[in-house]
């Protein structure tokens, strides 16, 4: 509606944008993004465009009906450049936030893979203890229950069993190299 009225007067959206107060635009953009989580670049880009549209609408309501224009052409170009710089700054901030989140996710994935590897190693140790016949019935039940506890607890129990049954204090061992005399 505003745009249609302004078109009749020969005023375009670009004319309005180039005459906008840059500080006012920055305040408006900051208000839009303040407190929001920068998680969707596309959504933020759309929000940026909507903010600019809203600012145009605000300016249209504040624009007097007279056609007097006090800004020179060079002032309009300078305002437009400031607006573009503000937009570029905002997009750079969004990109930085995304890179930061990607680094955090990569680190979390690395930690998850490390924990999975430790769990797998622990369960292989538990299975080997059961298979070589060195673990008693109570210990086999305990080893089966290890599926329900954390990998730190699993490793602690496995090492306790290894010290007790194989008289060794290491996670790296070979059941085949251990004589059955030590199991007992």
How would you describe this protein?
Keywords: Coiled coil. Residues 98-125 form a coiled coil. With 184 residues, this protein is mainly alpha-helical. The chain has two domains: 2-63 and 72-108, no CATH class; 112-182, no CATH class. 72% of the residues lie in helices and 0% in strands. The protein has helices at 2-9, 13-18, 22-33, 41-62, 73-131, 137-145, 151-166. It starts with a helix and ends in an 18-residue tail after the last helix.
Q: Please tell me how large the radius of gyration is.
A: 34 Å
Structural class: mainly alpha
Number of domains: 2
| Count of individual beta strands | 0
Task: Give the helix proportion (percent range).
Answer: over 70%
Give the overall silhouette: rod-shaped
Task: Please state the average pLDDT score.
Answer: 62
H/E series? HHHHHHH
Low-confidence stretches: 35-39, 168-184
Largest sheet: none
Strand portion, in percent?
under 5%
Q: What is the terminal-to-terminal distance?
A: 90 Å
SS element count, helices: 7
What's the helix and strand layout?
Blueprint: H1 2-9, H2 13-18, H3 22-33, H4 41-62, H5 73-131, H6 137-145, H7 151-166
